[in-house]
Amino acid sequence: MSYLLRGVAPLGGEPTDLLLDDGRIAATGREARVAGATVVDADGLVALPGLVDLHTHLREPGREDAETVASGTLAAAVGGYTAVHAMANTSPVADTAGVVEQVWRLGRAAGWADVFPVGAVSVGLAGEQLAELGAMAHSAARVRVFSDDGHCVHDPVLMRRALEYVKAFDGVIAQHAQEPRLTRGAQMHEGVVSAEIGLTGWPAVAEEAIIARDVLLAQHVGSRLHVLHVSTAGSVDLVRWAKSRGIAVTAEATPHHLMLTDELARSYDPLFKVNPPLRTAEDVEALRAGLADGTIDVVGTDHAPHSREDKDCEWAAGAFGMLGLETALSVVATLMVETGRMSWADVARVMSVAPARIGRVDDGPFAQGRPLVVGEPANVVLVDPAARWTVDPSALSSLSKNTPYGGRELTGRVVATFLRGHPTVLDSRPATPVGGGAAR
Amino acid sequence: MRHLLSAADLDRTGAIELLDIAARMAATQEREIKKLPTLRGRTVVNLFFEDSTRTRISFETAAKRLSADVINFSAKGSSVSKGESLKDTALTLQAMGADAVVVRHQASGAPHRLAHSGWLSSAIINAGDGTHQHPTQALLDAFTMRRHLAGSTDNPDGVGLDLAGLHVAIVGDVLHSRVARSNVQLLHTLGARVTLVAPPTLVPVGVESWTCDTSYHLDDVITGQQPDAIMMLRVQRERMGGDGGGATGFFPSPLEYTREFGLDARRLAMLPEHAIIMHPGPMNRGLEISADAADSPRAVIVEQVANGVAVRMAVLYLLLAGEREAWA
Fold first, then answer.
1. How many alpha carbons fall within 13 Å on the CB side of residue B136?
2. In angstroms, what separates the C-alpha of A157 from chain B's closest C-alpha?
3. CATH number, domain at B162?
4. Looking at the predicted complex, does its ipTM rise above 0.95?
5. Pick from A190, A200, A315: which is nearest to B109 by CB?
6. Range of the domain at B44
């Protein structure tokens, strides 16, 4: 089946036509107007390369009540993603070739988006002994991103060894920067709000101290470091400093840290409980500035589904984490594009090109994050840049409903998503998975 | 007022009104027959997720003196230990028709959740939540201070008055204290000046936004500022040398704490003649307060307990009887 995207504006530029045929972008402009293709009226829509998330919790295996590979990748497709990196903190932990291959196969079978499993750095995420990183790298899942996300690789020697070891297969260590001793029992950002409402504080320094250590370690051993969910102004400064020194560090900000602040904790509603915690307005502004100037390389969702009973409780008993896949692009469009701080080309960079490059999935037959030019895989998302919509938690495709944006109006909406030329989403609604979704 | 969740729920007028009602309630407690018919047929549930015999008995006494039916619901550790959730407990109480729920919970914000989640429609009274708030404690403290420091021969309870011009020192573990948070807010609302005195490790980051001063030196505050009231906070044992589970202590030793921040006979002698000594209880004698201070004639600690009943009667009256009068 071939699709003619008529009148679409690639990266928000001059409108043209794009022909998607046999999984590739086959033609543009006048040459795209061939007979037999299904025409998609894309007048007024922006085309971006399919989004790539470096930070998704799919919860399978282990917590299929909260999310499955199939439901999570469906949510991803609705959010404009054609690829997600599935974090390793499942049960069992993705610390062996067996588990990462299982997750990878579940992704293939579901057919909504490519699933690239992230391998655990340490056995059982325990922070003591390196997991079999080589076996995961050489498995069918071809793991290149390793992370104990949810836990910090806090032992400096283990972190050094991991950074060194993955050089053999061009891997990257994605660090959850959280000094554990400084954050025992922590519930929210430590500052004016925590002092007043009496919740145990999670100080900014607990993140910044680890980032400072890790960029120096990465420099020392000449390895790639990726810092997950940077949340403080001080962290942005540290990453900026490290980049100015030529250190191979990349950094991520999440949509929620770009939009929301610790003031929301005053509601004591665990919907706003996340790790690292929501910070101050000053931190939010530093993240936006860092994203605009390139200090922050990617927006990663940290999509963290939780069942209702894990959020329908008092704050201290609530689970950390919030949904992100179905709202990420709209949050970035609202905060950065509508305000003129970033172009659509910038959005493509931080949500597709850079994440694919960092994850080393920008090459080969399953390449992601490629330019929208003839011959490239037809991973394309169509966005209505003017659409305003109100987030309705019950309308989300994720199995869980723990979005912090319920009732908020956002600008910019995903209209269609194509995975190698196949529409997974049309008219802002799920279409069909690639291959019919054998595992659904 | 629908709920009492925080001392910040009260403005100056509302706080004075509540203290005035408490004074009337206290007067009824001098009579031989202490019981009033005001809340006959209403149900008050004491929902305690954390042990606190003193606070529970105080609320129970207050409700019974107003002729309410009282149900004690002890649900210690329930939610976090994966027993019945806070939500199911709330739904149960709703089904039983509780008019007011008095909540004590180890998690900050649990009463706020009960009041705003839509799980139940009862009036919620915060009887202490985590390290957040304990508004009735602040009210009974204010009531006690008003009686001793603002009242006169003609007006022994200080009815109608606030606490303007008074200076109160609150000493000890401010970081973990809901009593301190509630008192700072209510005392400020009533016009008093507050100085927190604590080792820096027990002062929260972010305290600069609070309506009070902070000092690390108890002697300086006592001699230099001559407070009208000094409130000694309880120091939890587990804050001292670490908890054995890897947590680091907030100060080196109990001896050093007592030396720097304890109210002993020497410091007692440095206080002004009229100053009163307060403690929310239970006391660690010999740690934050010496027997000399605790048993001195200037200590009003036992009176605080008695005033607690009157203040809690006033709160129940305002939340429950006020509502019924509005309906009539």
1. 31
2. 21
3. 3.40.50.1370
4. no
5. A315
6. 7-132+306-320
